[in-house]
Amino acid sequence: MAPIEDRPGKPRIGPLFRLSTRNASRVKDKHHKSRFNGHNFGYRRITPRRARISTVFHFPEPNRPPKLDRATLGAKPGPVTASPRQDLHTEPDLIELAPSILSADFAHLADQIELAAAGGGTVIHVDFMDGHFVPNITIGPPVVKSLRKATRLPLDCHLMIENPDQYIADFADAGADWISVHQETCRHLNRTLNLIKSCKCRAGVVINPATPVDTLSEVLDLVDYVLVMSVNPGFGGQKFIPAAVHKIRKLAEIRGDRRYSYRIEVDGGIAMDTVVEVVRAGAEILVAGNAVFGKGDAKANAAALLDAARSANLQRV
Among 156, 177, 224, 267, which one carries the catalytic annotation? Predict the structure, then answer.
C-alpha cells in the first residue's frame, strides 16, 4: 500500500488544516459551551493513520465596548472630589502662587491660609530651619500634621536643614506633598532625592544665591522641581538678588534643550516690583511671604500678585 502522503487525491502531511464542524460541535471545556458559531472554529490536522490527532482551536470573543443605555448617555458627570494630597502640576506655562507661612500670623494660621487660597494660592510653602544650616529656627513635622488638617492644598516643605535624610520620612508621614532639599547640604544628592520619591512625595532641589546651576546637571532629569533662592535663606522680608534671574533663565533653557519636565520655583523677595522679571525669565511657582501676609488683606494681596504674574507670562521671552 502506498504511503498516505503519496496516495492520489490525498493531502500531503504538513501544516495543512481542515475545518471540522463535527469536532467543533463536540468541544466542551470550562470556558466554552458546546457550540459552533462565528468565533469558535474546529480544525483537524491530517496526520498518518497511526498517529491521527484532532486539534481544536478556540478563538476568543472579539473585544467590544460596553453597551451604554440612554440614561447613561444622557447623564451629567458628577463632581470631582479632590484628594487631600494633590499632585504637582506639569503644565510648563501654568503660573502658581505659593504663599509662604513664614510671614503669616501663626496665631491665626488656618485663617491666613484660607485667605491666601481664596486669592489664588494653589500651594502652601512651609520653611523649616534648624539653626545650623541657616541662622534661624522655625517649625517641624508636628506643624505639618496640623496644617494637613487645615487645608487640602499641597504642602511644599522646604528643608533648610543639615542631614535632611534623617527627617524626610517624618515630614512625609506628617502630610508633606512636596519636599525640597538644598544641594549644599546633601553629600549624596541622588540618594536623597530618591528617598523623597520613595516616600511618595514630589522631589525638589534648592540652590542658594552663591551656588551655580551647573552643580545640578546630574540630577535635573530626576527632580520634579528646582527652587532658586533669590535671597540668602534664613529670614523673610529680604531684598531680591537680581542674579537669580539669570539662573532661572538658564534652567528654562536647559529644560527645553534636554526635554526635561521639572518646574522652576523661586523664593525670596518676590513682590509686585520683581514678579514680572522672574516670570518672564521662566519661573512658574512663585513663593511669596511678605507680599501676601505682610500688610493689608492676604486675599487681595495674593490676587494682585498672581494677576501681575499671569500678565507677565504672556510676555515671556
Answer: 267
